[in-house]
Amino acid sequence: MASNNFKVVIVGGSVAGLTLALMLEQNGIDFVVLEAYPEIAPQVGASISILPNGMRTLDQLGCHDSIMEKAEDPVDKVYFRSSTGQEISSIGGRKKTFVQQHGYPIVFLDRKMVLESLYDKIQDKSKILTSERVMAVENNPESAVVTTKTGKEFTGDIVIGADGIHSKVRQEMWRDAQKKSPSWINPAEQQDVPCTFVCIFGISEGVQGIEKGTLTSVYNEHFSYLVPSGPGDRTYWFLVRNLGKTVYGDDIPRFTKEEEVMFAREHFDDQITPTLKFSDLYNNKVSSTYTALPEYVYKRWYFNRIMTVGDSCHKFEPLTGQGGNSAIETAASLINHLVAALRENPNRPLSTAKITQAFEATQLQRQDRVWNMVRKAHSRQRVECLETPVLKFLAVHVLPRVPESMIQDQMVALYAPTVSLDMLPHPPREHAVPYYDELLRRPRSRGWVAVSVLSMAYLLLAFGAMRMLFTAGGTNGTFGFVRDTVRTGIFSEGGALLRHTYTGVSVIDRSLLGIVAVFLPAVTGASGLEQQLQLIYFLSAMLPIVALMTIEGFRPRNSWTMLALPSIWCALFQIGGIGFIGQLYFLFSIFTTRTIEYFLCQGMGFPLSTARATLPAVVIGFIVPTVLMFLPTEDLHARQGAIAMWQAAPVAVSLLTSFFSLGIGLIQRKFEVDASARTGRLRVVVNLQNTYKLTGAIAAAVHVAVMVCSIMTKNLSLASIFLPKGSSFAPSKTLGDGIFIFFQNDFLFVAFGSLLWGAVTMWDLHRLGLSNMSPFTAVCAIVVASVAVGPGAAMAAVWYWREDAMSGAMWKTSQQMMKVSRIS
């Protein structure tokens, strides 16, 4: 890159400023950093949290190991405490969870330590100048000039303000814009900056009662504490209080040391834990600061050759720790766009127009995300300060019971969209959740319009199924035939006797009478060979669907959703027909899977024992009872027993999965050596895909066999097998004819609904950047597969592909993927 003639003047040796300097150096771009303090990493009493979205870029810059060494103990347990210090709730295992999911833990350390790590990594330290307080910045047509208090001038192609919320660069940028383009920036915006909370933050040493690797939140009315443990014997703390009103601009207060001491003493008796008071923290402090907490994202971050980054353009409330991490993200975004502009314009200076384009692209990429995080941090602070009775109830009674899947969603939304450097490689660190820039394209939500359209489609299908199954069954006399058979105990066709005893439990036996009366004519083919073939085909197509629903029911990501009830759904299928109930299941699935986070979290935490249990559960719970029901026999008494036993088959699959999972889990713990997280996840995928392969192969084999039989058998056609003769509402001559129509309609509706479900799933893979197959191509492929191997096999193939696509994104590293055959 011909960048030696391009120079960047960075104002502020902050986290944003030094990160930007290191990024420029590693891209061969000249720079100078102007820091107002006499030292580059002063101790101002501030701690900082480095989160996965910030650490990922710092890892690219080679700072990961240094920061982790300085931090010592990543956050592993989070406590939420009441005003008495009593534990309301806690979440453990955070270190392992964050590393497995995102590749990095959360760490706390001195801000000074992070600055030292960044500074140490910069090769040419002569470009880092201290005691250079900026007094003026000028935008010129071909350069920008910074004048410092010492009278020195520094000229660069651009000037970047990384000098905090009270940014001198921003003030100068606004001044210059007022002269040259008065409509660009409204100077009154400075009075729009709001402040609701103020904070004393500090660092203490030698405090007893705060465990290493913990983060403690203490709820109080209108104030709260955040107390992370630090390295060595350090403890960090934040005492945040509500001002009682929101103030703006010049009304935002600044505090003296005397005011800090007065405020601190008012809270000396506050309990942090049952054995630790705030006075213990404050009296053991080595540094502290009392400051207001403005929260704002400025409308304009740049003008001509000047731009602001970090707190200079977006200021956070500190509770969520996103201030420094977002500064790193914005710096990375700026470098990406700047490097791209320089590559497009080699060997010649960048014009102001080209520089403005790079600045604009940076702000457009970042502003929505930072605004969203600023608002979330504010909302979270209001909750922890118990600002209203509703928020107090939420904090004490609701949040402790939030399911893990919702917490995962929040973390994915925070970390996965992070901006990192395009031109530097990522060190290979395993993580289950893909970052957006690892995907084939930036993911997007399905959107409420699409969700609404799909919901309406499934509601219409459910209405149609209800009409064609139940309204038609009542109108054409089918249900009347069933009642007569149950009442008389005799099948009108052939005079066979209806068996009355199956389990010896009268309630169960009575409920089975009607079901056996429905199935026996179809199993024996009372209306001809086509009826028997239709039922065999129907059940083979239903096999993969039951397997998929069982797997989705056990997927941790579906906990606390309607998908987590496969036994209930399968029981409802037997009562209300899968053609009707299936549409409702697909509807709930469409709603549950609407978000980006759902799919990116989808493969996380699936137990290997459960993945291994699904295949034997499907074989024993569904395939064996189905085969028994169709075994050739003249003993109708025994056949009716097999039919009655089959009714529990769909439900039995999920129950057997639970049972087998327990046993397999015990065997694993006793005999298997713990595998790496990566190997374990791949084993899960292999075992789930084995279930898809077997059920899909069976459905495909039956499909081909029925196709061949319809061609080779005289007076037999596909239409006679799958389509009702005439109107479904016309009177049926016999019970067998009515049941034939019922099952034909039941199959047609579930087949259409499941294929739509599969098409939406393929679209999901594309919109999330997990697949390059276009939605149109995916729909065509599903249609072709349905014709070639049947709808059941097509659905198994979709889920096989889905599992593979998700695993490919979730385990993306620079290392070669392990061979599946080695670990199956």
Describe the protein in words.
InterPro entries: FAD-bd, FAD/NAD-bd_sf, FAD_mOase_fung. One of its GO terms (molecular function) is monooxygenase activity. Belongs to the paxM FAD-dependent monooxygenase family. It holds the Pfam family FAD_binding_3. Its cofactor is FAD. The strands form six sheets. Strands 5-4-13-14-15-12-18 form a seven-stranded mixed β-sheet, sandwiched between helices. A six-stranded mixed β-sheet has the order 7-2-1-11-21-20, with helices on both faces. It has two domains: 423 residues, 3-Layer(bba) Sandwich (FAD/NAD(P)-binding domain), CATH 3.50.50; 324 residues, no CATH class. The protein has 824 residues and is α+β, with helices and mostly antiparallel strands. It starts with 6 loop residues before the first strand and ends with a helix. The relative contact order is 0.09. 53% of the residues lie in helices and 14% in strands.
